[in-house]
Design goal:
- The protein folds into 3 domains: 145 residues, Alpha Horseshoe (Serine Threonine Protein Phosphatase 5, Tetratricopeptide repeat), CATH 1.25.40; 106 residues, Zincin-like, CATH 3.30.2010.30; 110 residues, no CATH class.
- Helix 2 runs antiparallel to helix 3 and helix 13 crosses helix 15.
- 66% of the residues lie in helices and 5% in strands.
- By secondary structure, it is mainly α.
- Strands 1-2-3-5-4 form a 5-stranded mixed beta sheet, with helices on one face.
- It contains 17 helices and 5 strands.
- It is globular, with a radius of gyration of 21 Å.
- The two termini are 31 Å apart.
């Protein structure tokens, strides 16, 4: 699980533990709607939560906790612009509302505004000097900023590629071209178009390991930014295209459904959209009868060995290929949007594919 996913999980856990429960006069329209909104968040009904908080804010626009709830619901629905606006209003009213600062900083970071995220965290720290989460984020973003301050930038319509020196300028320009082509191919297939500019950082191997703490077998990472250890790689390298398309697909999925998407679906889509990704997966599955249980493909692949990771990626791609064959990419995109609204994966799958997920998996096994 990436740093950002951990951060969001922590914020939601704090909120659902009651740190931002409904305030105001019990029985008032704002109080009742706010309670309904937090209940919906706890139960994963994100669309219902957004509707409840909109009603609550309309009844009592001066309650910062209601703006916090509205921001969280918008974020979970894959609406970062609306989420930022609600969270900024909450912090204008209550600068000490740490949960709003944590979530707003996370959203800014995901949107490639590292300076803005750091500013939000630093502004929150005096109100919560003992908060270890805030302190950790400030330390990490300061360290990352120190690395990136000397980097150059190559920009496209949807991407900014950061690189360390003139020797990598051609590589960065090639990366922008690959990513812009991938944006229209993958986004059009799934009918999902990310709102925010996406930042890509080209690192040395040492920089990449220091910043991401990724397993040794990892070829790249996505945690709100696409991070690739490719400095010195040839600009026409097929591996560069494979890795960039793979990580962009993660960014696209994350943009529509920040929570609730199992790792196998994330990684399966990323492999499926790679150049020759499906052929690679089929070849991996053909050389061994071994298979990991589906439960092992649901969580992070980081603890896996290199051999297990190759199998996990190949199996995930096989699952996604079967979904694409059955309903096409638009059905997968619609399923992701259902998950973003708060539907469990099984319910979203049944709605889009008119069969139970268990029956689908059993059919593949047979």
């Amino acid at each position: 699980m990436s740093w950002n996913r951990i951060a969001v999980a922590l914020v939601i856990a704090l909120l659902c533990a009651g740190t931002a429960s409904a305030q105001g006069i019990p029985g008032s329209p704002a109080y009742v709607a706010g309670r309904l909104g937090w209940d919906a968040i706890r139960e994963g009904r994100h669309q219902d939560a957004a509707a409840a908080f909109a009603k609550a804010v309309d009844a009592e626009p001066r309650d910062p906790s209601l703006h916090l709830g509205a921001g969280l619901a918008a974020f979970l629905l894959g609406q970062p612009t609306a989420a930022r606006q609600s969270l900024e209003r909450a912090l204008t009213m209550a600068p000490a509302l740490t949960q709003a600062s944590l979530l707003l900083g996370d959203i800014l970071y995901r949107g490639s505004d590292i300076a803005g995220a750091l500013q939000v965290y630093e502004a929150a720290l005096p109100y919560a000097p003992d908060d270890k989460t805030l302190a950790t984020r400030v330390e990490r973003l300061r360290r990352e900023s120190a690395v990136h301050d000397a980097f150059f930038a190559s920009r496209g319509a949807h991407f900014t590629v950061l690189f360390e020196g003139p020797a990598d300028e051609g590589l960065a320009a090639r990366a922008v071209d690959i990513l812009e082509a991938a944006y229209w191919r993958v986004a059009t297939a799934l009918a999902i178009y990310p709102e925010d500019q996406i930042t890509v950082v080209l690192y040395t191997q040492e920089q990449f390991r220091d910043i991401t703490r990724s397993p040794q077998w990892a070829a790249a990472a996505y945690d709100g930014r696409i991070r690739i250890p490719v400095r010195g790689t040839a600009a026409d390298s097929g591996e560069l295209e494979r890795v960039l398309v793979h990580e962009f697909t993660h960014a696209l999925v994350q943009s529509v459904a920040p929570r609730g998407v199992p790792t196998w679906l994330h990684e399966g889509l990323a492999v499926a959209f790679e150049p020759d990704g499906e052929a690679w997966a089929a070849a991996q599955l053909a050389v061994t009868p071994d298979r990991l249980p589906l439960s092992r493909l649901t969580g992070s692949f980081a603890p896996l060995s290199a051999t297990e990771a190759r199998l996990a990626y190949a199996q995930s791609a096989g699952l996604v290929r079967a979904m694409l064959d059955r309903g096409g990419p638009l059905a997968v995109g619609a399923l992701l949007q259902d998950v973003a609204r708060g539907d469990p994966l099984q319910a979203a799958f049944e709605r889009q594919y008119l069969m139970s997920f268990d029956a689908f998996v059993d059919g593949l096994a047979q």
